[in-house]
Design goal:
The chain is mainly alpha-helical. The protein has helices at residues 2-33, 40-57, 62-73, 85-106, 131-153, 155-165, 167-172, 177-199, 211-224, 229-249, 253-268, and strands at 122-124, 127-129. The longest helix is centred in the N-terminal third of the chain and has 32 residues, at 2-33. The radius of gyration is 19 Å and the shape is globular.
């Protein structure tokens, strides 16, 4: 049983780090616009399938496939109503369009994405892990930390943070709020696309692969606190580990435990484990 638990921990950290990476996209768009990009899961899917095209079909190096998938999703979006409910609903429409487009271009079948690191198992104690899973853990967590460094240190990142803190004050200081909104959605989509290229070699790339990770990443963001990036990282890892642990007990519990955990957390802390408490004056 201890070996199974250790194996579940390693696998859970691998999957959970992808959830955390996608969830950072929810964080970036939410703090900047107050809106959510519900197409995150399908941007992951597009990133994975485009990575297959670059790496398998065109024979490009895996690093180029990663850059290509991220660049494909780092595109300027038309955001005429970016701060309204209509924009949130339009992200759902985009999600449906992306699924249908993927089926037409790549077909509905699952496509094997071979790992560039091979299939030789690395033993860490009594359990084994694939090199791709280790790459996912370090790559995802490293990217999350890099995003935080960008937001705190880079000029564009500081401008994005200023818009998140006070949109009107940022506009008065000469920051183009609309461009920062575009940047937020570009960064959000690119993070999801990167997650797709990372996770595809341990699963499959196909048109419907993004739905469940997108929902679980949103759950991770809610658990950790939608306005706290470190909380989101912890939430993503927790979701991945929990579902693997409960999968040992009963595979049918694996999918539902995430949402049960969300309900329990929200019942105790409505803003998430590390969310900011709101004080109301009466």
């Amino acid at each position: 049983m201890l070996v199974k638990l250790w194996q579940a921990l390693l696998s859970g950290l691998s999957v959970g780090s992808v959830y955390a990476l996608i969830a950072q996209g929810y964080y970036v768009t939410f703090i900047t616009t107050g809106a959510l990009n519900f197409g995150q899961g399908d941007f992951l899917m597009i990133g994975a399938l485009f990575g297959v095209t670059c790496y398998v079909t065109l024979g490009l190096p895996y690093a180029i496939a990663i850059v290509g998938a991220v660049a494909l999703l780092a595109i300027r979006t038309t955001l005429r109503h970016a701060l309204s409910l209509s924009w949130v609903l339009s992200t759902v429409a985009v999600s449906i369009i992306l699924k249908n487009a993927a089926v037409q271009i790549w077909g509905p079948e699952q496509i094997k994405f071979p790992s560039p690191f091979g299939d030789k198992v690395i033993h860490i104690g009594p359990a084994g892990i694939f090199p791709q899973e280790l790459f996912i853990i370090f790559g995802s967590i490293g990217t999350v930390l890099l995003v935080q460094f960008f937001l705190k240190r880079a000029v564009l990142g500081k401008a994005l943070t200023a818009v998140a803190y006070n949109r009107k004050a940022a506009a008065v200081m000469g920051i183009n709020v609309q461009r920062m909104v575009v940047l937020a959605f570009v960064l959000s989509s690119a993070l999801a696309g990167l997650g797709g290229v990372l996770i595809a070699p341990i699963t499959f790339a196909w048109a419907y692969m993004g739905t469940v990770p997108g929902i679980k990443a949103f759950a991770a963001a809610i658990i950790g606190g939608l306005e706290n990036p470190i909380g989101i990282l912890i939430g993503g890892l927790a979701v991945g580990v929990l579902e693997q642990f409960f999968g040992i007990i009963n595979s049918n519990l694996k999918e539902g435990i995430t949402f049960l955990f969300v309900l329990l957390i929200l019942a105790v802390r409505p803003t998430g484990l590390m969310g900011r408490k709101e004080i109301e004056k009466v």
